[in-house]
Fold these 4 entries.
Entry 1:
Amino acid sequence: MDGVEKTGNTRIERLRTLEANFRSHGLDITFDLVDGAAHSGSLIMPAVERWLGGLIDTSD
């Protein structure tokens, strides 16, 4: 992607830049950095479950 190097040197730096941009536009976002996950999607599942759990209304 042309110009991506301007947003950070690493994937995490670029994601943090995107996070800051979203927040600067008033978006309420969640950014969880999962140490050691790298490209293993299964290692992020606990963070995903916590996030999804917070969206579920169980007040029935």
Entry 2:
Amino acid sequence: MALCHALELPAKMQYSASQYITVQNSLYVAFGPPNIGTFIEFAAPLTLTKSFRYLILKVNIANTF
């Protein structure tokens, strides 16, 4: 999700100040601490790490190639 914000920046730099604040305050409400975005941001790398570890250790995917 962090890269998405960087990719949006060139278009947002063309907004007026009031448009930019309106977009920031309405579009990214779900990314704040009391909402789901924060948990997804922290859970994604942990889940990915556990999935890779399972595939490598339990399924033994490393020896199939």
Entry 3:
Amino acid sequence: MGAVSIEQPSLGAPQGAPVPVVLASGVKARKAYRHEDILKMANTTSAKKATRKIEARTAKNTARRSRVRTYLRKVEEAIASGDQAAAAAALRAAEPELQRAAGKGVFHKNMANRKVSRLAKRVKALGA
């Protein structure tokens, strides 16, 4: 796991308010409490390990979700430009990424299949 940096709370923040946490991946966790506070709340070693695993999994899933959204945006932009060859190439690159994320549980499999199907239909319509 990497380093976790904690931002300082603003002066007007109430005591015990959630403080944004920047995870090792550089992603700022929303509505997260300070890592040290979570570890203080955990009473057992297994609970402390679980919080570490959850934090690592959250960082990975956030990165996966962001990567998939980037691929989908590239397909949308190619469709908007009207270039069928570029749109088809972008869709071929996006589909495995989307299915991989669905396999890891970041997205539901039906949602991934639905998105691929609808994008393929739009790409096909460009050639007509």
Entry 4:
Amino acid sequence: MIGPDDEEGARPPEDGRPFAEQVLERRGFAITAALFVMLGGLVVPFVGWVAGMVMLWRSRAWTTKQKVWATGGPILASAAVLLVLALLTANWKSTDAGVGGSPVIPVVYDLGSTAVVLLLIGYAAAGTWLLWQALRPEGRRA
């Protein structure tokens, strides 16, 4: 028989707060949130990313400033790269090989797929940074 006083049984929270609230402060939740931000959009497109963002904003492992940068940084970086590419390709002649015959620079109609790839790379980088922040010792967190 397992009871509340059993060593391996369920124990009530020590400080009287609900268990769900305590989970938000655990390191394992922060690591899971960082992994969802990093890989969620790749494994389950859009839904995985949304789950990662919800977990990120619910977690108490990061400051609000860090959460804002992790959420908006990849979007801003992708937008900046797309703007530069759009400006580069605006007046160039397109061929089957790409802009000006270069297969490296995408043509205007390729910018949508380029944006998706840039966002996946950006959120992988943001998730890696969040994971690094979550794994740092308490005294060294910014």
